[in-house]
């Protein structure tokens, strides 16, 4: 009886959490399909009487949304590729090699986690300006070519792989890059996918960095385009603004649902180890 009550309370708690986290998304979707007068009704109504799908067309036509979307894809994917190319060998070196200063260097990497982007944007801005990289894709990509969080996460995963497996590969005269690509990376695939998702979401949603590093439309991203809706349509046009937000969030939700199996494996992997 006691175990049944505990399971019931656990289920109720989980359902409550799901409701709390789902409500903003449901409200955003609902508002995106309302007419402007319906968004002002109090008390608010969850279900629009006559869904207005043209709100998405209006949001898309507010600015060069396809251009913003293309920029977001190019920048987010490029950052992710560069991060994978840098954090995998760096994490492997920190996890498997004991060289002079390795502990100090890893400590320096960890310290950078405590430095917010807002603190370093001015020197980075001046540096990018000196190299004429403002208002370019490279100016938004290169500052994030590596990730201290990714190095930490992957280093911990690499350290959990048994030494015997690596020694067996070396006895078979496998080169280090083959050990990384054919043994290490496949074994930590859930961790890599989890990091990739977190990284993609962070840079897809990034508003601050594209805002301060661009002064024209050449390299601006989707979050800047969403903010532009308020300038063009007006502050009170919540239906158009929410339609733009649905466009912004949709790729992230798709990516999450496609990779949730790997995310669960990553938590199980770390928990079992």
UniProtKB/TrEMBL annotation:
Pfam families: BPD_transp_1 (PF00528). Gene3D superfamilies: MetI-like (1.10.3720.10). Keywords: Cell membrane, Membrane, Transmembrane, Transmembrane helix, Transport. It comes from Paenibacillus dendrobii. The keyword Disulfide bond does not apply. It is a multi-pass membrane protein. The chain crosses the membrane at residues 12-30, 73-92, 104-126, 138-158, 179-204, 238-258. PANTHER family: ABC TRANSPORTER PERMEASE PROTEIN MG189-RELATED-RELATED, LACTOSE TRANSPORT SYSTEM PERMEASE PROTEIN LACG. SUPFAM superfamilies: MetI-like. Residues 69-259 form the ABC transmembrane type-1 domain. GO terms for biological process: transmembrane transport. It is found in: Cell membrane. The keyword Repeat does not apply. CDD domains: TM_PBP2. Belongs to the binding-protein-dependent transport system permease family. GO terms for cellular component: plasma membrane. This is ABC transporter permease subunit.
């Amino acid at each position: 009886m006691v175990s049944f009550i505990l399971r019931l309370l656990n289920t109720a708690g989980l359902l409550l959490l799901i409701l709390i986290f789902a409500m903003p998304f449901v409200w955003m979707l609902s508002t995106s399909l309302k007419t402007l007068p319906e968004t002002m009704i109090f008390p608010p109504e969850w279900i629009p009487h006559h869904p207005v799908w043209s709100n998405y067309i209006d949001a898309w036509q507010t600015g060069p949304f396809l251009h913003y979307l293309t920029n977001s894809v190019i920048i987010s994917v490029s950052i992710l590729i560069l991060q994978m190319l840098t954090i995998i060998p760096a994490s492997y070196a920190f996890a498997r090699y004991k060289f002079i200063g390795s502990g100090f260097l890893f400590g320096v990497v960890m310290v950078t986690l405590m430095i917010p982007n807002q603190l370093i944007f001015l020197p980075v801005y001046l540096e990018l300006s000196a190299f004429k990289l403002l208002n370019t894709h490279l100016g938004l990509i290169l500052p994030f070519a590596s990730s201290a969080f990714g190095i930490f996460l992957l280093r911990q995963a690499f350290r959990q792989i048994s030494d015997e497996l690596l020694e067996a590969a070396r006895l078979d005269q496998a080169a280090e890059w083959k050990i990384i690509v054919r043994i290490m990376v496949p074994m930590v695939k859930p961790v890599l996918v989890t990091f990739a998702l977190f990284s993609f979401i962070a840079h897809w949603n990034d508003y601050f960095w594209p805002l301060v590093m661009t002064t024209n439309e050449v390299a601006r991203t989707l979050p800047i385009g969403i903010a532009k809706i308020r300038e063009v349509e007006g502050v009170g046009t919540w239906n158009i603004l929410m339609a733009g937000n649905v466009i912004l969030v949709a790729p992230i939700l798709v990516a999450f649902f496609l990779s949730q199996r790997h995310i669960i494996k990553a938590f199980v992997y770390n928990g079992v180890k």
